[in-house]
Amino acid sequence: MMPEYTLPLMLLLPLLGAIVIAFSGRWPNIREAVSLVTAVSLAILVFSWFPAISDGARPQITLSEPLPGLSLALSLEPLGMMFACIASFLWIINTIYSIGYMRGNREKNQTRFYVCFALAIAAAMGIALADNLFTLFLFYEILTLSTYPLVAHKGDAKTIASARIYLGVLLATSIGLLLPAIIWTYVIAGTTDFTVGGIIEGKLEGAAVGLLLGLFVFGIGKAAVMPMHRWLPAAMVAPTPVSALLHAVAVVKAGVFSVTKIIIYIFGVDFLFSQPSAQWLQYMAAFTIITASVVALYQTNLKRMLAYSTIAQLSYVIMATVILKPLAEIGAAVHIAAHAFGKITLFFAAGAIYTASHKTELWQLAGIGRRMPITMAAFTIGALSMIGVPPTAGFVSKWFILAGAFQAENYLAIFTIIASTALNAMYFLPIIYFAWLSPPATGVDMDHGEAPGAILLALSVTAGLTILFFFFNQPLLDLEGQLVESLPL
Q: Where, subcellularly, is it found (predicted)?
């Protein structure tokens, strides 16, 4: 097993990378090489811990104690291991994609972009490694602040207004709801440490349990549970690599990861869902899934449609967690990974279309498959994964979630998953059909080819991973199976 002091290196590597990137801004090739080397180095460090965590190791290190009883501490367990692997690996792919996208669109402030991206990854690593709520909150806020310049990247009035919505919603929810929830937990439990089985049982009963759960769930605005979702469509003004960061690499994944970790390690699933006052969460998750899917169905802008799709897909994780059956708990964790591969592919494809043709509306995509076959093949794979069609990653996670719902005889979850899958098909399949089989719309320029090679390489890799995950997912299933060993069958 690697020594515990390597845990802080997962934060320090992207931080040091950000500093070097800032000083190499005059030399674009060096700047982008530094970003890529840093991403690869971080992924190697993170994945080197995978065998030990799979074998049951739980490394922990305390960095400081800034407040009495509240420590800044890092640890690594199966859920955090998975999140760290996803974020670090996809940073590599996103960096390759960003090189093609930022240069292809001649974006301004590229050095600031790469610096903030590295800072956001450092914050994501902090969230993945957080040993307690205090540490989680600190890095959660850093992630919000470091991604604001990325969302506001274009700098025009419309972009700045949307970026303020992004920042305002996330800060208001975290400071107004999440922070009081953490303080309340500390007061009643005497600790904020993530503990197997939870720390709330015997300290809180009745309606107060549901209230505390509500403060956590809605306070973690990055999970985008309605009505705390408005920031996500607003953030679509950002460049596509940033959208990929928000939807697949770090931000929304940090949200559902945090909610899942709090349910498992702060409340404890056995205790939480023996409380009638906590049952509202499955209904809210179901409402978010269906409502966001219906809204996505009526979108005409490609990125906004993908944004509402993400809102629905995130609540799959929340619903799976509250089903309280081992198969569903594994499905919740696996869906974080499956959604990451599928959704980053979709956003990469959307960015490729914009770079090559500046098309953003769905009606403009008729016949585009003949001009951009690689891009649309990747888009098709990503879309089929969101629907849950084999052989894609999305089928694996939906299988586990649905199996857990049948295990629990949870008919609300069964109906929600089936209905939302039908809605997914209703808004993705027409795009695929028109892109490949329809003639171009009248007046739409089709005098273009594929996007630059770096973009095609990145989206081809993520599309391939979306399929490979269907066949080679056992290491992740074994790792996340450790989460549910204590749950009743």
A: Cell membrane; Membrane
Q: How far from each other are the two terminal CA atoms of the chain, in whole angstroms?
A: 32
What is the model's pTM?
Answer: 0.94
Q: Which residues contact 144 (CB under 8 A, 6 or more apart)?
A: 167, 170, 171, 174, 222
Beta-carbon contacts of 190 under 8 Å, excluding residues fewer than 6 positions away, are 69
Q: Rounded to an integer, what distance in angstroms lies between the CA atom of residue 376 and that of residue 290? A: 27
Number of helices (H), then strands (E), in the chain = 21, 2
The model's pLDDT over 239-277, given as tens digits with 9 standing for 90+, comes to 878 877 776 678 888 999 999 999 989 998 888 878 888
Percent of the chain with pLDDT over 90: 72
Residues 38 and 49 sit within 8 Å (Cβ to Cβ): no
For 371, the 3-state DSSP assignment is coil
- What integer pLDDT is reported at residue 247 of this predicted model? 67
Instruction: Identify whether the C-beta of residue 319 lies closer than 8 Å to the C-beta of residue 388.
Output: no
Host H or E run for residue 75: strand 70-75
Question: What residue spans define the domains of the chain?
Answer: 279-489
Average pLDDT, the chain: 91
Give me the residue label for tokens 């999440």: 178
Spatial contact of 314 and 259, defined as CB atoms under 8 Å apart: no
Neighbours of 276 (CB within 10 A): 11
Which pLDDT score is estimated for 107?
84
Closest C-alpha among 212, 144, 147 to residue 178: 212
Dist CA 206 CA 276 (whole Å):
8
CA distance 215 to 133: 13
Which residues lie closer than 8 Å to 315 by C-beta, 6 or more apart? 223, 224, 225, 285, 286, 288, 289, 292
Residues in the chain: 489
Write out the two tokens for 58.
Answer: 């739980």
- pLDDT (average), residues 371-396: 96
- Distance, in Å, from the CA atom of 288 to the CA atom of 469, rounded to the nearest integer, reads 27
Contact 255, 169 (CB under 8 A): no
Tokens matching residue 244: 């990929």
Residue for token digits 């990325």?
150
> Per DSSP, what are the bridge partners of residue 306?
none
Statement: residue 160 has pLDDT above 60: yes
Tokens (6 digits) for 112: 């600031």
